[in-house]
Amino acid sequence: MLTRWQRTFAFLFVVCAIIGPAAGASACVVTQGEHLVLASQGLDPDVFVWDSAQRLVEYLAGNYNAETVLHHTMLATPGTKAVVVGCKDGAGKTQYSSTNLDLVGVKLTDGPNKGRYGWVVADDTRTPDGKPITQATP
Predict the structure, then answer these.
(1) Which of 2, 45, 95, 136 could form a cystine bridge with 6, CB 3.0-4.6 A?
(2) What Cα–Cα distance (Å) separates residue 77 from each residue in 94, 103, 108, 113, 115?
(3) Phi and psi of 25, rounded to 5°?
(4) What is the pLDDT of residue 132?
């Protein structure tokens, strides 16, 4: 017969096993392995591909200088193909908006930086047919 603390531990284990995957499920707009193309929805369609998610977060918050951008980004021309290798749900926040943005980890699959990895804002991703991938507004 199990003692009270053993029953409590077993119950918590079962609850965590059931709820854990759902609580950790990502609400990102892209999924790992998904193929996409890069193109900014802004005036300049080129995309900065950052070497780390943290530097992209700092850039979005307005904490950057030209040297940081030059040393820690690759410039991807519109239509550069990529595959999703990760996503951070709502990890980026621009200094002028209260909306949090998904950050997408990508591996570039064509162009001069083919085979390199980096991070982009989800708003700079498109489906292979060119349609924008946009985040749902909360």
Answers:
(1) 2
(2) 22, 19, 11, 10, 15
(3) -65, 140
(4) 84
Q: Tell me the pLDDT tens digit for each residue of 37-82.
A: 999 987 889 999 999 999 999 999 999 999 999 999 999 999 999 9
List the one residue out of 81, 75, 89 whose CA is nearest residue 38.
81
For residue 80, is it left (φ>0), alpha (ψ between -120 and 50) or beta? beta
Distance CA 36, CA 23 (A): 27
Backbone φ, ψ for residue 115 (5° rounding): 90, -10
What are the start-end ranges of the E strands in 26-108? 35-38, 47-50, 73-76, 80-93, 100-108
pTM, entire model: 0.77
The sign one gets for the Cα dihedral 70, 73, 74, 75 is: negative
What mean pLDDT comes out for the span 87-110?
Answer: 92
Query: What is the pLDDT at residue 118?
Result: 98
Q: Contacts from 129-136 at CB under 8 Å and sequence distance 24+? A: 130/37, 130/39, 130/79, 132/41, 133/29, 133/30, 133/36, 134/29, 135/29, 135/99, 135/101, 135/102, 136/29
Q: Which residue has the tokens 């193309």?
A: 37
